Amino acid sequence: MGNKRKNKIVLSNIDKLVAKLKKSEMPLEEFLNELDSFKDTFYDNPELEFELLLSNGLPIELSGDNIYLKTAKTLLKEQTFCIVDIETNGSDVNKGQIIELGAVKYKAGKVIDKFDSLVYAKQVPRYIQEVTHITPKMLEHAPAIEKVLSDFKIFLQDDVFVAHDIKFDYNFISNSFKKYHLGKLENRKLCTIALAKRTIAAQRYGLDFLKELLHINIDNLHRAYSDALSTTHLLQKSINNLPDTVQTTEDLINFSKSNNIINQGK
Question: Is 222 annotated as catalytic?
């Protein structure tokens, strides 16, 4: 039997800094010194880099002379989650783009806001049209991608970014931001597939299967806003099944990555 290599998670400098903030507050001066030591920053000035992190959604805040990660202190009932779904005309941001973006703001068991927009695009491959029922004609008068992304970034703020398959939606949107010079995503993120595997007993964890299992009666599968709304219901059902030890937003994020998987074979 050959040696098996484990996938090594490579943390960015910002990830390492966030890991420190998850444990305790940090003097602002120390935080700025760490930023100043990084070689992969956008600005040479740490104060400007700090402002950039804020504008890109990193939930950090000052308390006196110290800085802290808001999600490490925020209770679940006080946290605003932004549940997001996108439809695209290709899986690679360099060859395709977002053609629909939907999002739900959710806090304390209630939907408090929504974002729903088609996006102008000249082409939609036939198989995408068949799955989403989005046609090029529907997009003829839709707003340009830069406008939709800019509006969405304002809508998102520093809320927790939630998606059913976080890697695709989060990375595609972040890379789209970078492509159109809108920064990138630094928001804390939560995957409802990972969370559901630890809170809901199921044979499969695709959104369509979980909707049927949990009697989430929302139509228009594979349309961005409808799928975001379905994921919102799934998030609430998962939160209802959390152990009492999960109190803060960071507790929730950590639990979603824990070894507490219900069906280990799934």
Answer: yes
